[in-house]
Amino acid sequence: MNERAPDWAQDVSRIAVLTGAGISTDSGIPDYRGPDGVWTRDPGMEQAFTHQKYVADTKVRRRFWHWCGDLHQRDARPNAAHLALADLEAAGSAVRILTQNVDGLHQKAGSTPRKVLELHGGMATAACLRCRAKTPTGDVLARVAAGEPDPACHDCGGILQPSIIMFGQLLDQAVLAHAAAIARTAQLFLAIGSSLMVEPAAGLCGVAVENGARLVIVNRDPTPYDDLATEIVREPIGDAVPRLCAMLTPSAQSMMSER
């Protein structure tokens, strides 16, 4: 390894990684608040991610399902950042991923599913808000493509919603408690591609720092947690994450300890 690793990258064996929408933009999935973000281009789309409005208005649901269909057709693939994190785990590092994303790209990249906590749920399934029956989201989108703009539950006629946490809904408390436990025991906490504006997920940065972790933020724009960071990296995520992961592999750690 040619690059001299910074002090915060040395003697690290337990790594927690919080990822946000910015890690998936290189895969063709737009973020929400960025210059080309979903809500930046169409401010009205934010309503479609608000649970109360989603439940109350069929027009909002139709808009949401149309957006999901467009996203599904892109057939997004993991990018260099997702793959680097999976490779870091495969190299023997104790990596746990706490993701705000719902795209499943960490798992597709090869990260062990049980080591990926989806804080805001996932798009793989949809659930009926009345009877709780679950169905693959792909099946729902096939109905949308066939001419049902707002598909209802086949079992009871209730409203279907992807298994994600919308604004106005509470995070799964068991998942959040697990994430907090991981943050408390991490030696290094990487926050990648997140605005760190959405709580309580963003607050995991504070939990980690309060318990002695080094916080490194990789994000294009400033965040509310920058003052707590040991280092802030502004370079493109697709370049930065593979570089940082290379420094953190057990073999790189061994080389550093020998110097």
Automatic annotation (TrEMBL):
What top-level branch of life does the organism fall under? Bacteria
Q: Which residues form the Deacetylase sirtuin-type domain?
A: 1-259
What the entry lists under PROSITE patterns is as follows: SIRTUIN
Alphabetically ordered keywords of this record: Metal-binding, NAD, Transferase, Zinc
Checking Pfam families in the record gives: SIR2
Question: InterPro entries this protein is in?
Answer: DHS-like_NAD/FAD-binding_dom, NAD-dep_sirtuin_deacylases, Sirtuin, Sirtuin_cat_small_dom_sf, Ssirtuin_cat_dom
Q: Could you say which EC number(s) this protein's record lists?
A: 2.3.1.286
- Annotated active site: H120 (proton acceptor)
Binding positions for Zn(2+)?
C128, C131, C153, C156
How is this protein named in the record? protein acetyllysine N-acetyltransferase
Q: Which organism is it from?
A: Actinomadura alba
